[in-house]
Design goal:
CATH superfamily: Aldolase class I
Mean pLDDT: 95
Distance between the termini: 36 Å
Number of strands: 8
Order of helices and strands: EHHEHEHEHHEHEHEHEHHH
Structural class: alpha/beta
Oligomer: single chain
CATH class: Alpha Beta
Radius of gyration: 18 Å
CATH topology: TIM Barrel
Number of helices: 12
CATH architecture: Alpha-Beta Barrel
Strand content: 5-15%
Shape: globular
Helix content: 40-55%
Length: about 300
């Protein structure tokens, strides 16, 4: 069995993790945490989302935060952008990369974006066109790839329809999201067998939530299929406001530990990563689901 020599871990906790918290974390604490993540060796951090504070109040400080973080050489600081207004704010705030998002399932897309899939395409097309004109790289997300909280199983044709449109718009990479954490290794293998005939492995990333404890198993299968890019969330933070019952992403420290022990390079300092995980756990005032935080509490 051939394993990759190196895997790229993209940290999305400051956005995907904190958006689901009931408490607003003070901006200065978020900034300190993101700076710790940069020090730990992440070269990609999704720091916030430029969405209406009415919908995601936990990220209402996006412009202030984006301007306040330290900018480490070689690190891409990205943000999720839903529309043209959000894009304007992101560009003005100095964000390096734009992320656009939509769902593979119609009901989740309507709950999450308040638009049909068909009506979402023109909005994202305008965002991507203007972002490219501004010299920004663009990453795409598809939610509910492996299952929808409202519709159940999602057909792969629905995933391909959205993926094709996003690649046509100019995204360089597509993150496939197991939003509610229902995927299993056999399902992952079957889906990737289809998708990898259509898209190069280096243009796909996987975004696994660990709702049912299968995230690391799914990552291992994905690596065997040739995928080397994965999203993570420090501490196992996360969930989706529009996916009831969904828990956080795979904990960054659990994935990095596993990869390190397998001899697979990530470029991330595990001890500094644990320090960052302990810090945000303390600020949130609750125990996070990360196994390594529980194994190494101090």
């Amino acid at each position: 069995m051939k394993w990759p020599e190196r895997v790229k871990v993209k940290e999305v906790g400051p956005r995907d993790g904190l958006q689901n918290e009931s408490r607003f974390i003070p901006t200065e604490n978020k900034i300190k945490w993101i700076d710790q993540l940069s020090l730990a060796g992440f070269d990609y951090i999704e720091v916030t989302s430029f969405v209406s504070s009415k919908w995601i109040p936990q990220l209402a400080d996006a412009p202030e935060l984006a301007k306040g973080i330290a900018r480490f050489p070689g690190v891409t600081y990205a943000a999720l952008v839903p529309n043209q207004r959000g894009l304007e704010q992101a560009i003005e705030s100095g964000i390096d990369e734009i992320a656009v998002f939509m769902s593979a399932s119609e009901t989740h897309n309507r709950k999450n974006i308040n638009k049909s899939i068909a009506d979402t395409f023109p909005v994202l097309s305008m965002v991507t066109r203007e972002a490219l004109s501004a010299g920004k790289t663009i990453r795409g997300y598809i939610s509910t790839v492996f299952g929808c909280p409202y519709e159940g199983k999602v057909e792969i044709d629905h995933v391909i329809r959205v993926a094709d449109k996003l690649f046509e718009m100019g995204i360089y990479e597509l993150s496939l999201g197991d939003t509610i954490g229902v995927a299993n290794p056999r399902q992952v293998e079957s889906m990737l067998e289809v998708l990898l005939k259509r898209y190069p492995a280096e243009r796909l990333a996987l975004h696994y939530h660990d709702t049912r404890g299968a995230a690391l198993a799914n990552i291992l299968v994905s690596m065997q299929m040739g995928i080397t890019r994965f999203d993570s969330s420090v501490g196992g933070l996360g969930g989706c406001p529009y996916a009831p019952g969904a828990s956080g992403n795979v904990a960054a420290e659990d994935m990095v530990y596993c990869l390190r022990e397998m001899g697979i390079e990530t470029g991330i300092d595990f001890d500094k990563l644990l320090t960052a995980a302990r810090y945000i756990q303390e600020k949130l005032g609750r125990t996070l689901p990360s196994r390594n935080l529980q194994a190494c509490p101090s």
